TrEMBL record, chain A:
PROSITE patterns: ABC_TM1
Compartment list: Cell membrane
Region of interest (Disordered), residue spans: 1-20
This protein's name: Molybdenum transport system permease
InterPro entries: MetI-like, MetI-like_sf, ModB_ABC, NifC_ABC_porter
Species in which this protein is naturally found: Streptomyces hokutonensis
Membrane topology: Multi-pass membrane protein
Lineage of producing organism: Bacteria, Bacillati, Actinomycetota, Actinomycetes, Kitasatosporales
Length: 285, 273
């Protein structure tokens, strides 16, 4: 396979990797059993977004979007999603390193458990968070009586809920990159006298930076769209815990036009962020 | 090679764990359905009535309508009543966007109007019960809440229903009527989630319906307040225009309005219409 187009491949690799086989594919034609479902799939993903644009109340849009509640919700959403991503980075990258670079009994089980919030319905996650970190929760009651900290109904609670659902995305992404990265660089660093932590900081981190970036974007996007765990754990109060998805949901009940307008804002923000980070996103290590 | 093989195996492990978790979850959710379905092998008394009746009902009707649903299934073998309990506004929004349902029972005329204004109801909705607000506090009422005014104390964590939901609108009406300003910690999306915040002891008090306090049993303590008389909610019920099973739906509405149905509803704490 590679023999046929080595020179092309070499040229393409310089440009950016994964496109190298394109010429060959079109030469043989795209098989229909793949093309048809692929196009249906694409339409399926794009159609709802198009519908949102078609039905958008363009005339009343300016007045809808200038209301303070919208800006409050948007600010809160951006702030809490960013803080949640920061929490994910601080805790998730070391966790990914532990899972990818060390051996300990039950590691596979731990890895499976880490991914659990991915398959857990977010509302269940919210209930679980209440039972753990609520005022009367397993850990929460000590937080309350020792430090006077209660998380539910606070912006911190929103960040906690979002970090809970978003962290697995980051851990999985970073762990995958770590496994793909050659551990011999770290070993070389260690033989040259670097401690394991220094090797991690100076060699591993720069090596897996694209993976961390991709994981952060995933986690951020997941946190931005988080609904179930947030409304269950942090409640809904404008300016404090009412993020955009909550505002959209509640607006949908009595003012569908406002809900569409809010959805458009969220869509625009998501597209802007994905477009801004496209280059890192497209070329993982 | 061995590396990638190992990775594949590991991925399979994770996938397996994920699948197991999913199975466990779906097993949980499906068990609810199967427990409520009755045997439909016995000969039906009225041959016309069979199949599923889908009832969209306000969250506060959960306990009493579930009981009535079971009674209906026993009285009419071969039928099955499925419920969708949620905030009335959520239900109204899904009905007007075409959700397949036979009956809509709302917790306020306002949310019912969303459906009837769009022409999705058949005839005029009938008020079948009324509901009064009550304060739900922690068991034993440790914060000594005795009036609506007590809820405005800043040391208390109070949750209200969102203003778009009937219980929230009613609470707001009562607060406005008594010129009180109450800042809650959260506006919940329906009455049950407001109640649950007190059941889980996350909030100190919630303004919910009498029926919800009743349903929660010893998990909360109810405190009646006179201002609630200003904000009594009428509960209208209507047959929906696109009802897939109109015959059985009419029979269910009749049961709700019958003496037997009213007995169940009164027992849950509802007021007569």
């Amino acid at each position: 396979m590679t023999k046929l187009d080595t020179s092309d491949a070499a040229a393409e690799t310089l440009k950016g990797g994964p496109r190298r086989r394109r010429v060959r594919m079109t030469g043989h034609g795209v098989p229909l059993p793949l093309l048809v479902p692929a196009l249906v799939g694409l339409a399926f993903l794009l159609l709802p977004l198009l519908a949102l644009l078609v039905r958008a109340p363009w005339r009343s849009l300016p007045s809808q979007l200038t209301s303070t509640e919208v800006w409050q919700a948007l600010q809160l959403s951006l702030l809490s999603a960013t803080l949640a991503t920061a929490v994910c980075l601080v805790l998730g990258v070391p966790l990914a390193w532990l899972l990818a670079r060390t051996e300990f009994p039950g590691r596979r089980l731990v890895r499976a458990l880490v991914t659990l919030p991915l398959v857990l319905p977010p509302v269940v996650g919210g209930v679980a968070l209440l039972l753990a970190l609520g005022r009367n929760g397993v850990v929460g009651q000590w937080l309350d009586s020792w430090f006077g900290i209660t998380l539910p109904f606070t912006t911190t609670g929103v960040v906690v809920a979002e970090a809970f659902v978003a962290m697995p995305f980051l851990v999985i992404s970073v762990e995958g990159t770590l496994r793909a990265a050659d551990p011999r660089y770290e070993e070389a660093a260690q033989t040259l006298g670097a401690s394991r932590f220094t090797a991690f900081r100076r060699v591993t981190l720069p090596l897996i930076a694209p993976g961390i970036a991709a994981g952060s974007v995933l986690a951020w996007a997941r946190a931005l769209g988080e609904f179930g765990a947030t409304i269950t754990f942090a409640g809904n109060f404008p300016g404090r815990t009412q993020t955009m998805p909550l505002a959209v949901y509640l607006a949908l009940q009595n003012d569908p036009e406002a809900a569409i307008a809010l959805s458009l804002v969220l869509l625009a923000v998501s597209i802007a962020v994905l477009a801004g980070l496209r280059d890192r996103w497209m070329t993982p290590s | 090679m061995t590396r990638s093989a190992r990775r594949t195996r590991r991925t399979l492990h994770v996938a397996g764990a994920g699948a197991a978790a999913l199975l466990a979850l779906s097993a949980c959710s499906s068990s609810d359905d199967s427990s409520s379905s009755k045997s439909d092998t016995s000969a039906s008394a009225s041959p016309k009535m069979s199949g599923t009746v889908t009832v969209f009902a306000a969250a506060s009707l959960k306990e009493s309508f579930t009981t009535l649903g079971k009674e209906f299934e026993t009285a009419h073998p071969g039928t099955k009543v499925t419920f969708n309990f949620a905030g009335s506004d959520t239900l109204a929004a899904s009905i007007t966007s075409g959700a397949p349902a036979d009956v809509f029972a709302a917790a306020s005329p306002k949310t019912m109007a969303i459906v009837t204004d769009k022409g999705d109801g058949v005839g005029t909705p009938a008020t079948f019960v009324r509901n009064q607000l009550e304060i739900a506090t922690l068991p034993g009422n440790p914060d000594k809440v005795t009036s609506l005014k007590d809820l405005t104390r800043s040391s208390l964590k109070v949750v209200l229903c969102d203003k778009t939901v009937p219980c929230g609108a009613a609470a707001q009406k009562a607060l406005t009527a008594s010129k009180l300003k109450l800042t809650p910690v959260s506006y919940e999306e329906d009455v049950k989630s407001a109640l649950n915040k007190v059941v889980l002891k996350e909030a100190d008090a919630a303004v919910v319906y009498k029926t919800d306090v009743h349903a929660a049993g010893s998990k909360v303590e109810g405190v009646e307040f006179p201002e609630s008389a200003d904000a009594i909610n009428d509960y209208p019920i209507v047959l929906l225009k696109n009802a897939p099973n109109a015959v059985a739906a009419k029979a269910f509405i009749a049961l709700v309005q019958s003496a037997e149905g009213q007995k169940v509803l009164s027992a849950a704490g509802f007021l007569k219409p």
